Amino acid sequence: MAVQGVKGLATDYTDWPADVCKYSAVFEDILVVGTYMLDETTRLRHGKLVLYDTQEKQLNRIFVMHCDAILDFKWSPRDPSILAVAHSTGHISFYRHQFRAELMFLRGIRLADSSVLILALDFSDDGKDLSVSLSNGAVITIDIISGVIKNTWKEHQYEAWTVHYSRDDNNLLYSGGDDAVLNCYDQRIPSSCVWKDIKSHQSGVVSVLSRPTFGSYIATGEYGDLMHTLDTRRIGRPVADANLGGGVWRLEHMYSNDDYHQVLGVLMHRGAQILRIANDFSSIDASSGVFHDHQSMCYGGDWRRKDSLIATCSFYDKRVCLWEDANHPLD
């Protein structure tokens, strides 16, 4: 049912719980979905990479590849055909999307024991480095070509749920943890983080968003339903807050104009919603319709660049959906 311009267009059910999805950076109509399945008998964690063709605003499954369970993936800015995948077994892997209906495994890099989950990853702007956050609270940066670990920080008491390079200064990166702490690191100072924000968040920090158009500002999301905008020059005092009614698992930047920054919010048990952050970061507009079709935790989301066709996926109901919001077309 359409709600305030929100219209579901297609759905499909993956065999295993789905927790991340992104449109291909090479073939714009291809959607990549990652899954995570825990075998309760063996305690092994399995995953699949699934490709969908969305040309007709439908979900046509065209490729499936088995791998270890997946928690996150990103496309390389250096080579858009390269997909870096975070696994639940202490390693990352790289795939190439050279042909429309196929992903090709390139190599893997082990970063921790197989009991450690790689929870999130992010590329530096030049695509030469990759940062990852781990379930043991560590944050690591690696040189992609050599696979050598460049820096390791252990500043979170619990899981480091997310990691994100600053798009204002790529020497800096942020991590958010289950300890409700937002950390900032400078790669030129490998011994410790340069600041900790222990005041702004009431629960686990699960998403961080920085864009070149944001300048020194960032947006963050909490497990406990709150989204914030922060000025990194004045940490500990959020510029704006909004209760989105669901854990703010991912924030995906769509575009910026003179008035606002449009962002897709992936909101766990609430679904997903298009948000608008004021250009001065003083407010967060969450008045648009919410996509409610997911029946469990919504963990993944992305939008198709040519027409803002939104894809989201959810975990326990193993569901992938395509939808659009007529009130928020591509500007």
From TrEMBL:
KW rRNA-binding (keyword) present: no
| Pathway stated in the Swiss-Prot or TrEMBL entry | Protein modification; peptidyl-diphthamide biosynthesis
Q: Which family does it belong to?
A: Belongs to the DPH7 family.
- InterPro entries linked to this entry: Apc4-like_WD40_dom, Diphthine_MTase, WD40/YVTN_repeat-like_dom_sf, WD40_repeat_dom_sf, WD40_rpt
- Biological process GO terms, please? protein histidyl modification to diphthamide
What domain of life? Eukaryota
Per its record, the protein catalyses: diphthine methyl ester-[translation elongation factor 2] + H2O = diphthine-[translation elongation factor 2] + methanol + H(+)
By what name is this protein known?
methylated diphthine methylhydrolase
Query: Key word Hydrolase present in the record?
Result: yes
Under the heading Pfam families, the entry gives:
ANAPC4_WD40 (PF12894)
The Anaphase-promoting complex subunit 4-like WD40 domain extends over 74-166
Q: Which UniProt keywords apply?
A: Hydrolase, Repeat, WD repeat
Q: Which organism is it from?
A: Schizosaccharomyces osmophilus
Q: What class of enzyme is it?
A: hydrolase
- Name the Gene Ontology molecular function terms of this record: diphthine methylesterase activity
Q: List the GO terms this entry assigns under cellular component, sorted alphabetically.
A: cytoplasm
EC number of the protein: 3.1.1.97
